[in-house]
Design brief:
- The chain has 258 residues and is largely without helices or strands.
- Helix content is 2%, strand content 2%.
- A two-stranded antiparallel ribbon has the order 1-2.
């Protein structure tokens, strides 16, 4: 139904030039975004308010689950502690306390306080030996066993090499046969370099000869200075190219005129 009201502005209904999304059907709630209510599938990016439930009915609804009066709280205990009412008990009569004997001025000796206030020289007395001294058996120096410091079984110090002097065996020695007595050549002379300064030593090695003319050396004809391109400009070089395939069609030059 055409409207009889005049048009306002310069816009008039016209055919759209391109597709408009409003003219087509959208998927709607097909995306199924996570909800914001409840605990199941709640949107993790949104704040979740506290939730409460009524709970379920227990099986034993008539059972007494409260502790009842089994606590036996005394009647004089309140929420602020014990009440201030006096309490009495039947106990025996306590003994009368003795009179306090306060010391008088004559019980003090201020003249003896000099050693406590001022410095005094050490004082010693010659008293008799007490009877209990004989029972005190103090260990002497011989009662302690210190670790040895000599020999190969030392604990606190490093052990030096130990040697033993054993008796000479007569079995198989030169005591049975004097021909077994060692002669001067049986002893090895100690090298003087062991206990004196060692002199320089030299050795006579074989003579080393320089390489002879048998070594192959390149002659003047083995070098090609005209081929050097590292220190001078290189001239352009050309090649004949590659051989073409025989299956390529030949070039037709003479074309008959029509």
């Amino acid at each position: 139904m055409a409207s009889t009201e005049p048009w306002v502005g310069t816009w008039r209904p016209h055919k759209p030039r391109g597709p408009i999304a409003a003219l087509y059907g959208s998927p709607g709630p097909k995306y199924a975004l996570p909800g914001l209510t409840g605990i199941s599938k709640h949107d993790p990016t949104k704040y979740k308010a506290p939730m409460f439930s009524f709970g379920t009915r227990h099986d034993q609804a008539t059972a007494d689950c409260s502790p009842g009066p089994k606590y036996l709280v005394p009647s004089n205990i309140t929420r602020e502690g014990r009440d201030g009412t006096p309490a009495f008990s039947l106990h025996s009569r306590p003994k009368e306390p003795g009179l306090f004997q306060a010391p008088g001025p004559g019980n003090y000796s201020p003249e003896r306080s000099g050693k406590s206030i001022f410095r005094s020289a050490p004082a010693y007395s010659l008293s008799g030996r007490s009877k209990e001294g004989c029972n005190n058996q103090t260990p002497g120096p011989a009662s302690y066993s210190l670790p040895p410091v000599l020999g190969h079984k030392t604990v606190a110090t490093s052990a030096a090499p130990t040697y033993s002097l054993c008796g000479r065996s007569k079995i198989g020695s030169f005591h049975e046969d004097l021909r077994k007595t060692p002669g001067p050549a049986a002893y090895k002379v100690v090298d003087p370099c062991t206990y004196r300064q060692k002199p320089p030593q030299y050795s006579m090695t074989g003579r080393n000869f320089s390489p002879g003319e048998t070594t192959k050396k390149p002659g003047p004809g083995a070098y090609y200075p005209e081929r050097v391109t590292f220190t001078r400009a290189k001239a352009p070089s050309f090649s004949f190219g590659l051989r073409h395939s025989q299956f390529i069609s030949p070039l037709i030059v003479d074309v008959p005129e029509l």
